[in-house]
Amino acid sequence: MQEDRIRFPSGELEMDGLYCPNRSPRAVAVTHPHPLYGGDMFNPVVEAIVAAYQKHGFGTLRFNFRGTGKSTGTYDEGLGEQDDVVAAVDFLRDQGFDEIHLSGYSFGTWVNAMALQDRLSVRQLTMVSPPVAFMEFKSQIRLPALSAVVTGSEDEIAPPHLIQPMIDEWNRHARFTIIQGADHFFFGFLDDLAATLSESIQVAGNK
After folding, report:
1. Does the predicted model carry a pTM greater than 0.70?
2. CATH number of residue 193's parent domain
């Protein structure tokens, strides 16, 4: 589906994004992997997430965190990036969407989780490869909106055996899917990822 290049404010900064309204009452904001390791909104996994949500009629917004691509500002170790997530959700609400969801990949999942602790509320949250072996997900995090987590069996940054006990803390009702053979970058498994996410979105929507 066609995505329009847009800019939206995050405080005094301007975020660079790709937006598809999709004529829907539901929309999702999608966050990207770590910008210091080349992550941006054009990442193939981010594109697979967007495609999965668009398949279910969602409006979509993917965007570059501050200091990434054409977004202004500088990298802020995940702190200011939480403001960017809040700003993205505010943008979607300003567009008139009734139901806002949030999804992310790798570093983006950490930023989303932190933003949801005290400043943000969304209908549902999905995570692709939360980097639990690379970044600290503080203890006692609760994510009542979490509906699905996906990782690969060969993912050393988001290993299944470390994610499972964390899901029990975040939201034990969330669906956890392990894609056999996939590593953190899902090379050769992007179609499997999109299909898995699509199924999870459908299941969550039927609850």
Report:
1. yes
2. 3.40.50.1820
